Fold each of these.
Amino acid sequence: MTRVLAYSDESIAEAARLIAAGQPVAVPTETVYGLAGDATSDASVAAIYAAKGRPSFNPLIVHVRDLAHARTLAVFDADAEKLAAAHWPGPLTLVLPVRGDAGLAKAVTAGLPTVAIRVPAHRAMQSLLAATGKPLAAPSANASGGISPTRAEHVLRSLGGRIPMAIDDGATSGGIESTIVAVGDGQVRLLRPGPVVIDDAVANSKAKIEAPGQLAAHYAPAKRLRIDAQTANVDEWHIGFGSIPGDATLSATGSLSEAASRLFDMLHQADTQHRPRIAIAPVPDTGIGMAINDRLRRAAVGSGGRA
Ligand code: TXA
Ligand code: MG
């Protein structure tokens, strides 16, 4: 049984106790809900991989309270310092050389010489970081390959019964996972597009390193998903955008930030409708629209697997 507790000092204290005992707890961040565990504990990190069914080659993001703590785990060059100063706390993850004395569990980085690290802006994750006093490894709180959760009820649909507890602090504000960039050798390489749009980043298609988790088939709804759909067939639940109303809409006004915050909720909803397929209207490929389209392309490739 998975307990769901509303965000409060007491629920954070209970979550910290579970994490100290090696159990992972779902907690909201400003992007999506994460499944948090002590990044310095082998047992804690192993429990995260087990609950998600995540392959061990796919490393985790480490969340810390502030830049000072981050500097004890990774090597920051001038580019990294600049990006951290501009965007932390917030939805930007930096992939940096891991320090020899970082003290992280080996499985967190999946054997890579780098660590993915971010300072989250959400009160629940920040309180949990303070209560545990540890860096917290937290992948999105969904079964591996599924849609990221933006509400506690999404966490339950995906991981209910597999984790002891989730903290409910309502829908997340951002709705799309953090931007991931690798920094080093005077270059900033984009590994995953997200809420923070980095203009001078080298796109990941030509970069040598990629986020191991960026498999083409990902974020998959259970039903088959068709993208760029101006109209829908009778057997499709249509998700609209802007002037295309659909059965439900990402944003009636054509706001990309509203669309980002509602995207995963719309996909979760579509999965529960009686129509067997999903179609989704075109979304402009600008700003955070690039991150939305990145997730939709992956969702379309992987969709229908569990229909
Ligand atoms: O917004 C987010 O980033 C959310 C919240 C909970 O913080 N977390 C999240 O984690 O999306 P996850 O595990 O679902 O995605 C993390 C991605 C994966 O694609 C993983 O392969 C990549 O980060 N990653 C982690 N460490 C890496 C590293 N050292 N080098 C390259 N990619 C890395
Ligand atoms: Mg994920």
Amino acid sequence: MKNTIVTLQKRKQNRQKITMLTAYDYTTAKLMDESGVDCLLVGDSLGMVMLGYDSTVSVTMDDMIHHSKAVARAARSAFVVTDLPFMSYHTSVYDAVLNAGRLIKEGQAQAVKLEGGQAFCEHIKMITQASIPVVAHIGLMPQSVLALGGYKVQGKDYQEAKNIVLDALAVEQAGAVAILLECVPADLAKIISELVSIPTIGIGAGVNCDGQVLVYQDMLSMYDGISSKFVKSFGSIGDQMKQAFKQYCQEVNKQQFPEAIHEFAIDNDIIEKLKLEFTVNKKG
Ligand code: KIV
């Protein structure tokens, strides 16, 4: 059964946690879907982990659509959320609706995510009015890295914390179906999760959110870019991949791979005939 916004809402009501991981390609998304991950986020973090940029600001709509399509094809049950990238919704409400529509129609997403609280309520309202579910990303908003001067925990003083609570209440009021809370103190995330009736999904926001999300290259120790206190390694897949790549190189160089079992056979008569026809100059 395909997960929908109703599945997520019911999870919150029944106090069952929601699992979300980022996904950017068909093969990995299929493995996650088959493992029972509830939601796949085609995050603009693909700018770093897939494209090698040092932030998300260069990611384009075409990048997002390309990866979203691949993930959606793999997601038999997981709910697919795709990020609106930097500058695809900031310029106007019109652009926001248009680009959200592209992520749904071309990217085959089931919902879009945008970074912003009170300042983006009109955008959320109008996208929602176009029958497109919106996940609002508040707390640390990585698309604002240039304005923030780096990636820092948000909401540590009273005014900042209050503003994040107001963001959460405002996006819920505007029609958001879920809130992604990034890098905020755990007790603040707890207050927000109790205040709003829509699910909260946390990253660096403690255990009391209604769900959790991680960038999969982080949780599998595949990416050695920026690392955060909130990331837990669930496997040394990066090391395992490197080991396998090294072994492949060694075996090819030593002619240990391919072996006979990897080869296709041909009738010896045909080979002899070919040899006669195309005499190999053995003298060189
Ligand atoms: O783009 C992304 O990967 C995100 C993370 C916070 C999960 O939004």
